[in-house]
Specification:
- By secondary structure, this protein is of the alpha/beta class.
- It has nine helices and nine strands.
- Strand 2 (40-42), helix 1 (54-71) and strand 3 form a beta-alpha-beta unit.
Length: 253
Amino acid sequence: MKTKSFFTSFLSTLPLLTAVLMTTPVVAGDPVNTEGVSGIALGGYAGSRPSRPRSGLHAEANLLAILENVRTCTLCVKHLPLGPRPILQMQQEARILIAGQAPGRKVHESGIPFADASGNRLREWLGISSEVFYDPTQIAILPVEFCFPGTCKSGDLPPRVECAPAWRETLLKSLTHLRMTLVIGQYAQAYHLPNASGSVTSAVISWRDHWPSVVPLPHPSPRNNIWLRRNPWFEEQLLPELRLKIVELLVTP
């Protein structure tokens, strides 16, 4: 999706089963090991890989090259307290994109996106298992910033301005089968819903305006427990519809 907002300033190996471009492979369907896995997951198939036309192979080769460049990116290195460690997950076949803010400290340490309390709640919201969640052929995970930005008194710092302009649009264009984007929190909302006015709450209340291509969600962090108690309609109305749609997207050829 072409987006213009303040975010314009705010902001190898083809036949493989699964590759994580830094360390341990994660194979679709296998239990996810939360220790020693880092970097960029480019997932694949637990069984034999179907043949692809030349155009598809060319696109995959381009994506691998882009992800390798992301892995070695140092644009923000002087500003990252724990150093660069890009954490994202994608393969061009993915139908659902999870657009979040930035990895937290725990995710930085594990190298696995949403491997924390927020991720547990998000998977519960979506009604999917960890195996499905970490299958890059089904779910892409692209935060607005790929590295942990550090913390301040109120929590994690906002995503840095360098990351999204450098990589985001190029990677989004590689998701050629995308059917739904889950926009989590204010920073992802600013990028993917630049014309939405007001707060995250107002965007989530208006979720039917963009359904089903873009779905704004509050952040699943435990810090938002009060918000969830004050807005019971979210779990009563939005989440049941979302779960049904996700099932449809994941099982429909």
